[in-house]
Design brief:
This protein is mostly beta strands. It has four domains: 253 residues, Rossmann fold; 90 residues, Immunoglobulins (Immunoglobulin-like); 88 residues, Immunoglobulin-like, CATH 2.60.40.10; 74 residues, no CATH class. The longest helix has 17 residues. The radius of gyration is 48 Å and the shape is rod-shaped. It starts with 17 loop residues before the first strand and ends with a strand.
Length: 540
């Protein structure tokens, strides 16, 4: 049996936060860790000023009534040391919990259950065969000398408050050098997993080394046996005590406990998956199709020595995008009508993945703005002489899309369509009459708008009575018309047609100075005819 440094002075702390066992149901954000072993887990380090300031997110679930601390068995308190029992000292669990909460999201709390028994053999934590191993009668009489029953009872109480996430052991000085020790440790671990209904693949087991030889450790040789634990217990890890200073040949000092506890935590943090949540959009946000949805994920990697390598975004089981740099965002475009469940999956450098809670987004059917359209020519109530050629021009636009076509109508009769700006249609050889023109614009989502109507009139060209000889007439035919066609109704009587600069001789059409080829709308002409006749301007 190895010598033990017992505690004789009570330390009283006031102002502790107490949480009643009946005040809340199981909290999934309260992470519980079971810590057990012998005197080093019990704690032999002096509690110094720096150890007495504790984040309230780090709690201890008390294993016994401690009137000197104002604590009651089974309740949770801010984890101001001592954590093991009423008069123990600083232990590895102290800085394990502090390091954990410092690296976890602010909504996560950590609680420890600490059962450390000075001088105990690992057999004391057996379900049977433990009698005679409680050298200093530390196990409460209510548990009949069974350290395992004590640990299990407090662990079950803790499990009603939160979720057991891992188990920590520091024990072995009394069993130093025993080759059967790993199998005995495995039996205790297996019993806890079974009796607490835990999943071993999700409950890491961490075992701390003994004080090293260069720190004066008497049991350093047991470290070679501790090193075999990962080969005996799956999901188990050895926590190095290298460089952790001691205060005697068996126990670490306060600085050693701080370092060792931090190492327990760093290993546990490295095993954890990233914490990820979708910060934008909020759940049940609605959009109109076709939607563009910007998604942003907040990610915290619990391992301070690791990194986030990527965040994948999913709609249901379909990956819709990836981001590899912070802030982790992705814009999902052209989303059709429907209801979607969105998640983000973060992967860290330890290849651990964390999935966010799902949010729901709803994309409604498109609320499409109708296009605008107006006729720009001809002017309303314009008149044209028959036969008329009239170009219809329209202006069209769409505020939330594009114009796919503009259709032109005379009344209800479709004249034609134009799919590209400038939008126009040519009406040719129009007979006399009244025309009511509209343009209908269609956008990319098939919304339509009809323009205001434009009315124009095509009138019969006037008939003009000509006398024999020279006559002055004005051309009422729109545009330019071949002189022969314009005067076709009297062409047999025409000798000469003349304007201010040019003339045309019927008898000598091939002479070089017959430069008058066409007549133009609105211009005046001198027409010489061989007889009196009636000019009909309608082109035959």
């Amino acid at each position: 049996m190895k010598p033990i440094k017992l505690l004789g002075r009570a330390v009283v702390f006031t102002g502790l936060l107490i949480i009643s066992t009946s005040s809340f149901s199981q909290d999934p954000n309260l992470y519980i860790y079971l810590c057990f072993g012998q005197s080093n887990m019990e704690g032999q380090g002096a509690i110094e000023t720096q150890d007495q300031t504790v984040d309230s997110r780090f709690q201890v679930i008390e294993s016994m009534d401690c009137s000197n601390l104002g604590r009651t068995k089974g309740n949770a308190y801010t984890a101001v040391p001592p954590l093991c029992r009423c008069n123990t000292k600083l232990c590895p669990a102290d800085y394990f919990g502090r390091t954990m909460v410092a690296n976890l999201p602010s909504n996560i709390k950590v609680a420890v259950v600490v059962i450390g028994i000075a001088g105990c053999d690992i057999a004391l934590f057996g379900k049977t065969g433990y009698s005679g191993y409680d050298t200093y009668n530390i196990v409460p009489s209510t548990y009949g000398g069974s350290a395992y029953a004590w640990l299990l009872d407090i662990a079950k109480t803790a499990k009603t408050k939160g979720v057991i996430k891992g188990i920590l052991l520091h024990q072995g000085e009394t069993n130093s050098g025993q080759s059967t020790w790993p199998a005995k440790v495995k039996a205790v671990y297996d019993n806890l997993i079974t009796d607490l209904g835990l999943d071993a693949t999700k409950t890491p087991f961490e075992v701390g080394e003994m004080l090293y030889q260069n720190q004066g450790g008497a049991c350093y040789g047991h470290n070679s046996i501790i090193a075999t634990i990962p080969g005996v217990i799956p999901n188990s890890y050895v926590i190095s005590a290298s460089g952790c200073p001691g205060q005697d040949t068996y126990h670490f000092n306060s600085a050693g406990y701080r370092t060792l506890g931090t190492r327990y935590a760093m290993q546990m943090l490295a095993l954890m998956e990233p914490f990820v949540s979708i910060s934008s959009p909020v759940t049940n946000t609605t959009y109109n199709a076709p939607a563009s949805i910007s998604i942003t994920a907040d990610v915290k990697n619990p391992n301070p020595n690791g990194t986030i390598t990527k965040v994948d975004f999913y709609s249901g089981t379909t990956k819709i995008g990836t981001s590899t740099t912070s802030p982790y965002s992705f814009t999902w475009t052209n989303v059709a009508k429907g209801t979607y469940s969105i998640t983000a999956v973060a992967t860290n450098s330890n290849n651990k993945t964390g999935t966010s809670p799902a949010i729901t987004v709803v994309v409604n059917g498109a609320t499409n703005l109708a296009p605008t359209v107006s006729l720009t020519s001809p002017a309303n109530e314009a008149t044209f002489p028959a036969p008329a050629n009239v170009t219809i021009d329209a202006s069209a636009a769409d505020g939330d899309g594009t114009i796919s076509k503009v259709s032109f109508y005379n009344g209800t009769t479709l004249l034609g369509e134009d799919a590209a700006a400038p939008y126009s249609f040519d009406m040719t050889n129009l007979a006399a009459g009244t025309y009511v023109i509209t343009a209908v614009a269609t956008d990319n989502l098939n919304a339509t708008t009809t323009s205001s109507a434009v009315t124009f009139t095509v009138t019969l060209a006037p008939k003009v009575n000509l006398v024999k000889g020279w006559n002055c007439v004005g051309c009422p035919i729109q545009g330019s018309t071949d002189v022969g066609k314009a005067l076709s109704s009297i062409w047999q009587s025409v000798e000469t047609v003349k304007d201010q600069d040019n003339f045309y001789s019927v008898d000598n059409p091939s002479v070089d100075f017959n430069s008058l080829k066409t007549v133009d709308w609105g211009k005046g002409y001198l027409v010489k005819v061989t007889r009196a006749c009636e000019l009909d301007w309608i082109v035959k």
